Amino acid sequence: MTEPARPLHYLDIGELAGMIRTGSVSSRDVTRALLERIAALDGDLHAYAQVMADAALAQAAAADRQIAAGGWRGPLHGVPVAVKDLFDIEGWPTRAGMRLRSQPAAGRDATVVRRLKEAGAVLIGKPELTEGAYSDHHPRVVPPRNPWRDDHWPGISSSGSGVAVAAGMAYGSLASDTGGSIRWPSAANGLTGLKPTWGRVSRHGAAELAASLDHVGTMARSAVDAGILLGAIAGADPDDPTASLAPVPDFTAAATAGAGAAAGAGLAGFRIGVDAAWNRDDVDAGTRQVLADALATFAALDAEIVDVRFPAVAQAIADWVPTCAMEAAVAHQARYHAMRDDYGAVLAAVIDAGQSLSGTDYQAILLRRAAFRGRVDRVMATVDVLLTPVQPFAPLTLAQIRTLGAQPDLIARLQRYTCPFNLSGHPTLTLPGGFTADGMPVGMQLVAPRWREDALVRAGAAFQARTAWHRRHPEM
Predict the structure, then answer these.
(1) Annotated catalytic, 84?
(2) Active-site residue among 26, 84, 158, 186?
(3) What is the pTM of this model?
(4) What is the CATH number of the domain that holds 143?
(5) Each residue's pLDDT tens digit, 65-122
(6) Which among 19, 32, 35 has a CA at the least distance from the CA of 72?
């Protein structure tokens, strides 16, 4: 096989797809190389809950035959990707970070998994996650370890997805985000994560944490790759009536436009919204510098920087907690009491809290949520994207994470720029914008109007064509 200029395991999806299509490398060779890398690294990193070695090699061999026969399906054909272990894959158990006494194999693929298979992707494994996609790993699960520094947080809940992609053990991963579960691990691991509009992607066959907050999205090493993955899985689904009938944008065209802007066409007329006070108050100096540098990059691309005032988020953050608890109680009601002893303490406490919430209290939350969504819509109508932090402080250490339960103010700060956009349903793109002095990645967030993921991909591709933060990888 022809060796690329960069390590095979860190190639972009589009670059690798071109090599597979032309036969300069086979999908089977690529898949075998990644499986060998998983075998060498994952004993320390613990990214995967389940590695699907034999199935992946069979899918890769089938992809090679189809491509050789002229049946190339697109930029995911023959490319190994991961699927967070809360999506059903026929023949495999969906553990969802849990360790229940009964977790039979799924009898049918989740819609997003079926669509990945139809695109020709090779499913290499199911990354680990926090229990039930909430905030803590099950006591019997060894948590994934951040490949940049193992004394730092890998993010939640898509912790294994972040570690697997950052460490070159997958080219991208399906993930989910209920309060920050794509964005935190993307930021912590130096990745690009795309949380689409709620309803853009079917949730059929995905284990629920909180149905109206759960967003199915993608994690990859670039905005282009995240868009490629989203383009494969997005769209209406008769098995999920909440999946929107809205047309799916051409994310490849959006990425091309973004890259073209960086090459000289510019982002003239593209509006980047900034709430200077929200991005400054109680935000550390390193994060503020990342945002300032990003704005300078966008300004150099001729984007228009627009001052906006984002609505207050304190009540929305406070409302996220009981909303998640109530909906988690509904999601687990069929088995919680029968299998209560199989649940970890943190998830059990959330379900218990949800069961105690009154209907009138929940209705008041729903009304406040609708009003908050409307206020966000008004701001987003004035810009193409909004720039914010992912979190207002430097990457967290595991020692700091262990103190979160005793620091509600720290939890609220962590949720400040993530949970509001689960309540409102707006799409976001997380991408690396710099590094700390000790070499840890620092993420930033772009937010778009609902259904405008193409604006995120365009802006992200333009930024990444002018910068190289997403090209840096941990030393393994």
Answers:
(1) yes
(2) 84
(3) 0.97
(4) 3.90.1300.10
(5) 999 999 999 999 999 999 999 999 999 999 999 999 989 999 999 999 999 999 999 9
(6) 19
